[in-house]
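A protein record pairs a chain with a discrete description of its three-dimensional fold. The shape at a given residue is found from the number at the same position. Here is what such a record looks like in full:
>
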Amino acid sequence: MIPATISMATLFSGLAPITTPLKHRCSVLQKRWHIGVFRMTMLTPFSSSNSIEWKRRRNLICAVGRGPEEAFKKTVEVDRLIDMLRDANPKELQQLVVENILAFNEGFWIRLAARTDTCKSEDDKKDYEELATSVMNIVDRVVHKTHEKIESATDVLKAILKPVVHEEEEISWPPRDPEALKLMEKEIVQREQEGQLDEGFLAEVNAQLRQSKEDGDKPGLEAMLQKVLQLYASIKLSKKSYAKKGNEVLKAEQFLETIIKAPEEEWNKLLIDGLTVGKGEILPEEFYAVIKKRIERILIRTEGGSYQQRILTEYVKGIQSRTEQLVQLLRGNPQ
């Protein structure tokens, strides 16, 4: 790829920041939480009277416009989130709440209330009540913090790209400094942990990417933005491992996770070293099976039609496509 130099001003010119939509989203979130079973502005510790009122309100709510199958899937998703929240330590709990901030709607609180009501012991009920209080407090802090100071997606993207901006305020791609990518990745990790790489951010990156393709006069910009999305997908997909089943190590899953974490330019070598068509012991068919399973997991665990779902799916499909090309080549059947 031919190195290209692009000024930061040129990169972001003509694209309005999306601060206003983010503020609107915050307002919508607050409304959603306020109209739920609990009012976020009136947080109080749970008591037996709270539980009675909770149950009374829940009994007044009925499911409308949703089929049994869809309702069951939603319940399973909410139960999985509740179980994760219960098992988390205080630090993990805060991170989980931030990562799943859109999930704390009315349906979540209703399901949590139902599970509390069906507890067989008072200790379990108390645990659920304390969990509800903790989650609501964290959600309340997030909402107020977001409302007070919203950093636009454009500003977040600028901060991520800052490592490749030199003193003359120009972007060079590929970066002149090999450490720049590491610094960029570090910034993405930090922003992801802070919950800033949301749909608004992903929409901004995609808008920039689409604009660069349409303009056709910013060589290297497309590759740079693609790298941002690749780093995002790699970090996001690496947060959970499926490489162990009990005490058994699933080698194909472990191999896929190695590829996911690796830079794209290292994929070929890793695939040759790991697959049986090269120097390794993983059958291509076995590898394709775990790729298919990972894509299915992404589709189940992300919102349908979201930028996150599309980006994570495309990243894994990119690994599949690269593998298929390499396997065909090594078997002597290049397409």
